[in-house]
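Appendix B, example 12.
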Amino acid sequence: MSIDEIALVCPSSLRASAEYHARKHATTTIRVLVADPLPSTDDLLATSAGRSSWLQVIDTIASDFVFVLDENVVPGPHYLQYIHGLMHTDEYRNALLGSHGMLLPASLNSKFDPASHILCLPNTILPSVTQPVDLLQGAWLLRKAWLPFLAMETDLAAPLSYYISQTLHQHANVPSILIPPHSDQEYQLDLNKDQCKEVETAYRENGAWQQLLNRRQHPTCLDYRQTTLMQLDTVLFFADGPEQMIELHPLVCRYTTPVHLVVTGKERGLDGVALDAALYESGCLNADNVIVHDLALPVADELAVASMAAQGVVRLIQVLQPQALVHIRQDKPTFHVMDAMMQAQDTTVTIGLPIGDVRHALWIADLPIDALKHWNDIDVDIVVITDRRPHSLSRLLQSASRAHYLGDAVNLKIHLEQSSDRVTRMLVNGFRWQHGQKTMRHRIRKGGLMPAIVESWYPSSDHNYAVLLEDDIEVSPYYYVWAKYSILQYRYSDASHEARQFMYGISLYSPRHLELLPQGRRPFDPVTAIGDDYDTRVPYLTQVPCSWGAVYFPEHWREFHGYLTSRMEDLRQDQLLNITVPGSRSERWKKSWKKYFIELVYLRSYVMLYPNFQMFESFSTNHLEFGTHVKKGRSHALDEFLVPLMQRDTILSQLPGKQLPTFADLPILNLWGQRVTLDGLEKVASNWHTNVSACERMTGRFDPQDLLCPFVRHRHGKKVKIGGKKNSGEIEYVEPVEYVTVAAGEATAIEGSDNDEQQQQQQEQQEQEQEDELWTENEAYLPVPIDVSQMSSPEADHQSEDDELMDVERDIETLNSLYYHLHPEQLHESSSSSGLAAED
């Protein structure tokens, strides 16, 4: 090969001698470059890159390739031609090649061990194959485009061979590849074995290099190899500065498995080595399993720091292949650049938690890794149904806006009834929702509560969930935390197949009553109902759907839509279906969506998760604002329905074992609050299915069609299965007979309540007539625009009213009457304070 020029680098003390020898080679131009090495210090040993003078003059080279030879190294006659030829192949075009190299010990999956030995190659231990190495020794054939990277002057305390290989790898994406020794000695490099020992000595004695290796910011080749052999379900944390580290500290320390923590270095206020020691001093129980990686970023502007931090994290992710990256969500370039670069990482889910929300997501450490991977798949809609109660609606919206959403985008969808007043519409239009998109819908024809709720949401995917809230609900600041934790635990874990099939939602409310007993509402204590077999505060499953704040799941709600559509159409036409729930008070609710949902869950064995915290502490409460039906001054019974909202996050501290149990470990109650098993519910549902449908029961498909096969009446009074062949014979079924027993006192109460409603309507009509008489003669003839929200339509309102709520009203009136009968002195005080007449 033709050599254009030879550059001989020497200190000024050897300049004369070097020039003398250069003149003796007339056929080849030898240029003498003088560069005095940096003075030797504890950090810059003789083998350090900082002591290599040629790095100071590398920018003066103009040729396409530079063949750098260390002292005391002799290449074979054809070694340069051999390496040069390989660098012109597609496989090795962008690689640094050599025949002698070293492997450093793996350090990313364990604490750094300074006593570990490095491996010099080639040797007799490892097979002689082409392989990546951490550093090449003795000779380096460099492309001109790589030279500027070598002049960056970083990590000069490391040995020269490490500096060259790592600088090109980290900044130019040029790997160091070891070529197996050639059979012909002319193609080999004669390397003094002492050079390998010098690097081994520096590995043990060079304090500055040891500190660099302790940062674990540069993965070794053995780290890459371990990745192909070990599939670790690990989590990677990123903290830019002490503030973020303080925020992440309780979550990092909650883990019981090894985790990796990346920090940006001393210049950003957080040194990795110091942090490692501080974890032990802070009492972190997981300190032994926290592996700290220090990127040691230099002082620079925020954009440059953000870019370098993201590149360093991505490099570690390529080696560690973590399942999740957890970092702090802030309006800073570091977060935005990191978030953008992580979008391209398909195998790692990014979890950005706002400052202040990490402490409410400590349960992340308890989630199975297969569930945690779906963190960003969950799409929650807050669905609000409102009419003409602006004060109640304002209270609900304000409480929802103060909640912790863990950095998620949560959309708010508000559905206004046709009769919603002008104040309500103005409130909705002007309300700012900062956690996602806000959408509104206003009905043009009054439909009542059942279509308002059922039609308010239809899932867009199997990851779309809805929090259904009426306007007299108020939510806890931690309702979304409870919802997301439960969804991840019971919907996305590989071990939650039964939960995905049978659990249809998550209640935010803790009921004090059983509402489906035939004799009416009765006090309910979940601790007593569950029994001594479970922890006192264990959440429980029950079939009863919650309408006072709950999350509903997409597959089950989609199935309910199909079921209700067919049920409503059948009631409007032939009424062929005879679907009932025996012994349930919901059979009296003809206009309540819950009646039909209860039918579905009873026939499908579906269950809902309910909280069970102290003193009925809940994530939602209902203020039960019925308008004129409940007298404001005489509503002592309302206290039985109100529950305290969780204002301080005690979710984990109250749960058994400080985490949500598995689905199999949750107690199950039926519609009437009795302890049952899932198999027991399935047996009851399967038996009752034969009484309500002529089709064979099919489960697990979230398709209601098997429930909607009516029996057709035969002219002899028998029932035959629809769809049977004429010649196959009729399949006869015994028509179920339902006996309903009503106590005389209850019948009288019901009749009395109907009379109360008639008297109430008459009173309202009289008040309206009196108000009309107050109009002056001129005012009566003034043109008045039509406002639907101010039009009186008591008959239409009554027809569309949810009779489940009317049932609650009657119970409250009954409880109030009993209360005042036992405490007559309270009646006078209540009437006086509210301005009501005593005889009222």
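The chain has 27 helices and 33 strands. Residues 231-366 form a domain with the Rossmann fold fold (CATH 3.40.50.2000).
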